[in-house]
């Protein structure tokens, strides 16, 4: 594999610190050297990339990916329901689109096929299909059919402790990384659905116990405060939304802050609020978007004060918020949730590496770390919106290989 030296760059290293001038040497799939002082790195045998003052930063991590949700910027698909063959191909395309837009990792928040993401992850890891590093999720399940949740190609599980244990064990045996359960409903599914619990407590407890035994992660959709509490109590590692968390739920989340992650997924609410009238979104959907956003704008600052990791991304894949526009979340984190641009970037990179379970080797520009890197035209710590413009991603590297090589003008030594 090649040795590549990036010079004439500003380095945003993912920690949240201000960018600094330096050089970075990539050897094989890892970052071999990072230099912040004026002494040039040894460049013998290396391909040289002259960044022309652009910013080198870690690849972003989508914390709440639904690659099998069908719409992307490359192709809008007006249904989530189709035969599995078409659906899997669309899912594979969406993985590539995600990487095209600077997301070199994706933590899945649920699939519409039980084995879609196993097949996809293995193809990507083998280097045979383009896509981000992927933590593969189970189908997104709650008991029975929930209106508003796209129908998956596979059945989930039966009710009760034994059925839940068997389901979690089966997911682990399939080779999934994470099981997603809908612990609460959602107002987008049914009126007041966000306050309805989908499971009995003993079922959630059984899921937690079996997940620990089987060595698989748990993620949950949790809107109601009671759902958040169940999730935290029984060992769910990733808690999505949490919009109605109360003081007790916040205390529980804080007590487990070293182990858990929260991703509010406010992109969908913003997409509904800002959708072009031609989408003819139901008025109620837009009103619910405002309601969720109001709740999240109060909640997230509290989560942050308590030191809980809140990550951008989530629920992209509808026609009005297609996959590929995921970097919008960073902008909402800055304008609506009180993050500075550098903090939003840190959440998408350093904490992203941590949600992937790879915090000791992913998400930073640091010696020894995996070479998942972006070269960005401009300073994203000044303006995160530039990350929404694909043309400003001058180079996308995953695992030391170019997904998008820098233009020839940058490679003249
Ligand atoms: Zn979701």
What is the topological layout?
Blueprint lengths: L2 E9 L8 E8 L2 E6 L11 E4 L4 E4 L1 E6 L18 H17 L2 E6 L7 H10 L7 E3 L1 E5 L19 H14 L3 E5 L18 H14 L2 E6 L2 H9 L4 E4 L5 H9 L5 E3 L3 H8 L8 H23 L22 H9 L4 H15 L17 E4 L16 E6 L2 E4 L3 H4 L2
Helix pairs in contact: 3-4, 5-6, 7-8, 9-10
Zinc ion (ZN) binds next to loops.
Structural description of this entry:
- The protein has 413 residues and is α/β, with parallel strands linked by helices.
- The protein is built from eleven helices and 16 strands.
- The strands form three sheets. Strands 1, 2, 3, 4, 5, 14, 15 and 16 form an eight-stranded mixed sheet that branches. A five-stranded parallel sheet has the order 9-10-11-12-13, with helices on one face. Strands 6-7-8 form a three-stranded parallel sheet.
- Helix 9 (328-336) crosses helix 10 (341-355).
- The protein starts with a strand and ends with a helix.
- Zinc ion is lined by residues 64, 66, 109-110, 240, 265, 314-315.
In short:
With 413 residues, this protein is α/β, with parallel strands linked by helices. The protein is built from eleven helices and 16 strands.
């Amino acid at each position: 594999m090649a040795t590549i030296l990036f010079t004439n760059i500003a380095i945003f290293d993912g920690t949240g610190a201000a960018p600094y001038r330096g050089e970075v040497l990539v050897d094989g799939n890892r970052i071999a050297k990072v230099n912040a002082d004026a002494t040039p790195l040894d460049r013998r045998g290396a391909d040289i990339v002259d960044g022309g003052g652009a910013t080198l930063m870690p690849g972003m991590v989508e914390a709440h990916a639904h690659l099998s949700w069908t719409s992307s910027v490359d192709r809008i698909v007006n249904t989530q329901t189709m035969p599995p063959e078409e659906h899997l191909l669309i899912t594979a395309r969406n993985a590539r689109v995600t990487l095209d837009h600077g997301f070199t990792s994706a933590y899945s928040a649920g699939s519409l096929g039980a084995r879609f993401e196993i097949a996809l992850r293995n193809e990507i890891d083998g280097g045979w299909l383009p896509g981000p590093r992927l933590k593969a999720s189970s189908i997104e399940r709650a008991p029975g059919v929930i209106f508003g949740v796209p129908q998956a190609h596979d059945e989930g599980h039966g009710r009760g402790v034994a059925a839940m244990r068997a389901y979690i064990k089966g997911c682990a045996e399939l080779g999934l990384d994470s099981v997603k359960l809908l612990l609460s409903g959602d107002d987008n599914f049914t009126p007041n659905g966000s306050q309805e619990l989908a499971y009995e407590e003993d079922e959630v407890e059984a899921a937690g116990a079996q997940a620990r035994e089987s060595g698989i992660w748990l993620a949950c959709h949790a809107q109601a405060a009671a759902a958040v509490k169940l999730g935290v109590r029984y060992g769910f590692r990733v808690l999505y939304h949490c919009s109605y968390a109360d003081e007790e739920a916040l205390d529980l989340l804080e007590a487990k802050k070293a182990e858990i992650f929260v991703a509010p997924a406010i992109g969908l609410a913003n997409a509904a609020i800002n959708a072009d009238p031609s989408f003819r979104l139901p008025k109620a959907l837009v009103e619910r978007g405002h309601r969720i956003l109001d709740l999240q704008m109060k909640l997230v600052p509290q989560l942050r004060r308590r030191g809980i990791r809140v990550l951008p991304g989530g629920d992209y894949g509808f026609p009005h918020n297609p996959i590929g526009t995921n970097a919008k979340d960073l902008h909402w984190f800055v304008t609506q949730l009180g993050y500075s641009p550098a903090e939003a970037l840190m959440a998408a990179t350093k904490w992203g590496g941590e949600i992937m379970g790879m915090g000791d080797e992913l998400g930073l520009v640091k010696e020894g770390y995996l070479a998942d890197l972006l070269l960005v035209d401009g300073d994203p710590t000044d303006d995160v919106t530039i990350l929404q413009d694909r043309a400003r991603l001058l180079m996308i590297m995953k695992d030391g290989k170019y997904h998008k090589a820098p233009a020839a003008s940058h490679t003249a030594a």
